[in-house]
Amino acid sequence: MTEEYVGMHLNPRVDRSPLKERNAAPYLLPSACLGYKYEITCGKPPPGLFFRESEARAGAVMTVSLPPARTPAILPRDAVENVPFADTTAVLAAFAIPPRSEEAVRVADTLRGCRAPPLAGESKACATSLEGAVRAALRMLQDAPCCIWAAASAVPREGLPRRAYVVAAVEQLGGDRHVACHDEPFPYAVFQCHMTGRSATKAYKITLTGNSPTSTTMAMAALCHRDTSSWNPAHPAFELLGTKPGGAPVCHFMPYANLLFGQTMHEAAT
Fold first, then answer.
1. Measured between alpha carbons, how far is 83 from 72 in angstroms, rounded to an integer?
2. Which of 14, 16, 95, 169 is the one with CA 20 to 30 A from 71?
3. Over the stretch 135-171, which tens digit does the pLDDT of each residue have?
4. Ranges for the BURP domain (predicted)?
5. For residue 22, is pLDDT > 50?
6. Quick check: helix, strand or coil at residue 124?
């Protein structure tokens, strides 16, 4: 099975610093709001993280913001094998995290989310390395007819200031099934990867630009969930977009260091 990379890239500024340089400061990730069950408190989602599919058109104006990324070190696969993951107590001890601290609560929430069973029609897995995330996506897309692609938003680690952005271009990405891997709060990078049933999602590359001559143009990966009937009614996207479970599609951008996988539909080259 060939891996084919589309016009976006895995952001080269993703932190691969040594584990000892981990930033232990409390953090809330935008991706915490992207779980279907919405069991983990994500606070108020940043403006423009969620949007309507009708806004994915050239010329549309969207108010978007993303906070600075707090993604910890992404460890290579061989390093991950030597640090604890599944046991909360062992993780807290290994990284000197006070048991009753906010960070300890987030570690426990992440592990609880990883252990939770998938929703009906959903496939899910937690990965502790980039290699693990790729393998999880390949397993979920194992009967793809052709080639697998991977994409990530080319958004600065410093985030996006809240402002109006013009949609310069929209390109639908291949396939009718997609795997999204979201970074989770943890002492090192952990990705929760999930995929819903066939024909349940559409993926896009949306190019945003500011409304001034000096603005930067950014290629953003985005995913639209077309069937939200099994989502928690308290999910913040419903209130923000004025819809409900089973209603209009819910779309969101992929934040910094989040990964999106899918399959092309053309025949493999011979």
1. 14
2. 169
3. 999 999 886 657 889 999 998 888 888 999 999 999 9
4. 50-264
5. no
6. strand
